[in-house]
Write a sequence for this structure.
């Protein structure tokens, strides 16, 4: 079985974004497109030669074909062993778990996360390093540079391998081991949380919950952990069967896309707890009865209560949040006397801090929370964390959150997304804001005085690497902020994200409705950026 050398030419635009290379399936289906990117990984990540690689994805359309391509190329590029999830399935946090547990040289995750799947929808690929985390910018830049000059890739001419039967097969010099994608991950969760307490909560007969897997990758994980191990009643996991097109929906756990679940938590008969995860299993949404927990609050609450769970009894070392995430976590860190870091958007920026032991818990406003147990955000981990808290504190979700606001004050928070807007218009809007920045400090916008205005740049405290243009921040007194960013995960035009936040110390004002309370700031944000004039959009199309 001689490796073949196939001549190729570079494709434009193979630069990974916030989380890997994401494009329409049709783009990935072009001859050599996927192969070029994969070869660029092998050409730049030299430890993979003779090493072990983990491969799996969220099961979306094109997942299986892509895995066959990667296996043949891994064999032709001298990889010694590949661990692939049965059926080609691995959630993103499970890949991270397996890389770390077996000390492999890295992993390849196939997913476009919360973006829809199917022949006309999205696909994605990303490389995770030996620490289990998404490759840092130095690595993604090297991979991208390689795609610009690539002229040959290596593969084998072999039929597809069976991915559905556990066990090992030889592919040339490569050993391909099909493994159960759930077991190692479930074992890790059991080591972090009080499964007995959660089991008792389910047994109490007075606690009702649903977990919505959104027809995506977490179905098998949630069935095994929630229903089999923790004894939740059958049917607790909804939409548990992963589908190539996620049943036609957006596998995005938010109030707009998880409507069915949200409805189940509302009204007199509403569930006590609702949770959902995204396409690749790294996001989470947490709901109580008639209650939505913002991801920024969730991060702060998990950090403040971590000592109540077995995995974090000795406390946490530090917290990090992405820049647009609310400053609720900062208040917890301050009270606990621990460090708090503000990083650019994207999980890859947490990796060094986690590896260096500077932080234990981190999160993003985009429904992502995680800890040093892996190097990805982790949807089911957050759900189990909340279940553990509910079991120990014997309070409702709403009471836990309200209690937190009483202790720390409330950071009102919302994000407004303007999706699929014209790229040039979106870039023009950001340029316009950049020009305004130097003149803003000291000026009055509505009732607010600008205290700082900048284009966020980050210097990694561990390796000193610098990342610029990570979002426009306009700060006012008392932590009030407007942040503007363009998405780095979309595949059509541009998506403008506007993040709004203000702090309310007065408990008598904590129960206000968020969008209403935010209205003055919303109007300032729209006007300052000339959103309607520049994009033609009066209103955002997704509000979280
Ligand atoms: C979005 C979120 C970001 C998250 C990223 C990947 O990126 O804002 O916080 O890390 O998605 O999440 P952007 O560039 O579109 O704003 V996932 O669940 O797609 O791996
Ligand atoms: Co995701």
């Amino acid at each position: 079985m001689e490796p073949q050398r196939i001549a190729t030419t570079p494709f434009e635009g193979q630069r990974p974004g916030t989380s890997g290379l994401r494009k329409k399936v049709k783009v990935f289906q072009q001859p050599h497109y996927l192969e070029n990117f994969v070869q660029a990984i092998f050409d730049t990540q030299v430890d993979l030669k003779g090493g072990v690689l983990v491969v799996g994805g969220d099961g979306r359309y094109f997942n299986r074909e892509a895995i066959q391509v990667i296996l043949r190329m891994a064999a032709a590029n001298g990889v010694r062993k590949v661990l692939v999830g049965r059926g080609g399935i691995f959630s993103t946090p499970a890949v991270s778990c397996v890389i770390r547990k077996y000390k492999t040289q890295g992993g390849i995750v196939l997913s476009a996360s919360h973006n829809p799947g199917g022949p006309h929808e999205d696909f994605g690929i990303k490389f995770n390093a030996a620490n289990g985390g998404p490759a840092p910018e130095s690595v993604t830049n090297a991979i991208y540079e390689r795609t610009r000059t690539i002229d040959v890739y290596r593969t084998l001419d072999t039929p597809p391998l069976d991915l559905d039967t556990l066990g090992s097969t030889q592919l040339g010099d490569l050993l391909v081991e099909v493994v159960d994608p759930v077991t190692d991950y479930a074992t890790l969760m059991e080591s972090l949380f009080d499964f007995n307490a959660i089991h008792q909560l389910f047994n109490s007969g007075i606690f009702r919950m649903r977990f919505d897997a959104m027809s995506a990758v977490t179905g098998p994980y949630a069935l095994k952990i929630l229903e089999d191990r923790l004894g939740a009643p059958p049917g607790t996991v909804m939409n548990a069967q992963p589908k190539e097109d996620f049943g036609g929906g957006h596998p995005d756990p938010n109030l707009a896309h998880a409507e069915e679940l949200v409805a189940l938590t509302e009204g007199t008969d509403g569930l006590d707890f609702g949770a959902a995860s995204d396409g690749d299993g790294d996001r989470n949404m947490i709901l109580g009865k008639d209650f939505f927990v913002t991801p920024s609050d969730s991060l702060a609450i998990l950090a403040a209560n971590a000592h109540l769970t077995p995995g974090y009894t000795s406390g946490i070392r530090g917290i990090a949040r992405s820049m647009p995430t609310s400053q609720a976590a900062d208040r917890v860190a301050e009270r606990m006397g621990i460090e708090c870091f503000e990083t650019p958007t994207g999980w890859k920026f947490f990796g060094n801090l986690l590896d260096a032991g500077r932080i234990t818990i981190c999160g993003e406003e985009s429904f992502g929370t995680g800890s040093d147990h892996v190097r990805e955000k982790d949807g089911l981990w957050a759900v189990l964390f909340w279940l553990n808290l509910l079991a120990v504190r014997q309070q409702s979700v709403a009471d836990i959150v309200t209690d937190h606001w009483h202790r720390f004050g409330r950071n009102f928070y919302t994000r407004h997304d303007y999706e699929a807007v014209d790229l040039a218009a979106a870039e023009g809007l950001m340029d316009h804001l950049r020009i305004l920045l130097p003149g803003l400090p000291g000026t009055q916008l509505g009732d607010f005085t600008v205290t700082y205005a900048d284009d966020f740049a980050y210097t990694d405290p561990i390796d000193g690497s610098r990342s610029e243009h990570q979002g426009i921040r306009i700060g006012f007194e008392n932590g009030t902020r407007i942040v503007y960013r363009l998405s780095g995960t979309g595949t059509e035009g541009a998506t403008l994200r506007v993040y709004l936040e203000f702090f309310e110390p007065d408990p008598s004002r904590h129960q206000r409705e968020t969008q209403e309370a935010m209205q003055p700031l919303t109007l300032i944000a729209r006007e300052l950026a000339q959103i309607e004039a520049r994009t033609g959009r009066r209103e955002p199309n997704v509000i979280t």
Summary: The radius of gyration is 23 Å. The pocket of cobalt (II) ion (ligand 2) is lined by residues 113-114, 278-280, 282-283 (CB under 6 Å). The mean pLDDT is 96. The chain has 17 helices and 27 strands.
